[in-house]
Amino acid sequence: xxxxxxxxxxxxxxxxxxxxxxxxxxxxxxxxxxxxxxxxxxxxxxxxxxxxxxxxxxxxxxxxxxxxxxxxxxxxxxxxxxxxxxxxxxxxxxxxxxxxxxxxxxxxxxxxxx
Amino acid sequence: xxxxxxxxxxxxxxxxxxxxxxxxxxxxxxxxxxxxxxxxxxxxxxxxxxxxxxxxxxxxxxxxxxxxxxxxxxxxxxxxxxxxxxxxxxxxxxxxxxxxxxxxxxxxxxxxx
Lengths: 114, 113
Hints:
The complex is a heterodimer.
Chain A: E1 5-7, E2 10-13, E3 19-24, E4 31-37, E5 44-50, E6 53-56, E7 65-68, E8 75-79, E9 88-95, E10 104-105, E11 109-113
Parallel strand pairs in A: 2-11
Antiparallel strand pairs in A: 1-3, 3-8, 4-5, 4-9, 5-6, 7-8, 9-10, 9-11
Chain B: E1 4-5, E2 10-14, E3 19-25, E4 30-38, E5 45-51, E6 56-59, E7 62-67, E8 72-77, E9 86-94, E10 101-103, E11 107-112
Parallel strand pairs in B: 2-11
Antiparallel strand pairs in B: 1-3, 3-8, 4-5, 4-9, 6-7, 7-8, 9-10, 9-11
């Protein structure tokens, strides 16, 4: 069974530029999550989708971050414009049902904003 | 305010001995607890979980204990192996908040041969 796929693995951009991350969840998983993990901290949930609907985006900085999940499968997370403090690993995860118990994570995208 | 606390940033044990990783929480609405393991440059992988209606769950070398009155859980690894060296995250699911996972800061475990 293929795991959660994310791309790119690494990205370096200058502040005020825009960037987009892509995630392909495990086939059949209805729930998809985007997490931000800053160095030395635990993952923080940015947004949770159930199929293509948003369940929770309370911690998504909506003035600069956006996410979509078209057709309830792949998802993209965008940052525009990026700030230095956005430097982090962005993790995508998916699970069979609602509730992030036993979610499966991708390898993440390491973003460096300079 | 850190609702899930892993007070030990790092832990070092000898191969074959027991590793005990601790986690404390403050929110009594948490009803499900999970441990994830993370190797460098990889995403976290699910290790073991426990529901709040239980006080122990065992899976091979890994056992999680839950003490609800103390709001404390621990992960025991016996015997520890060098391949267990990783960062371990404790996470708790909030029954009243879409079961959102709240994560601790992690404990880096080093198992020495």
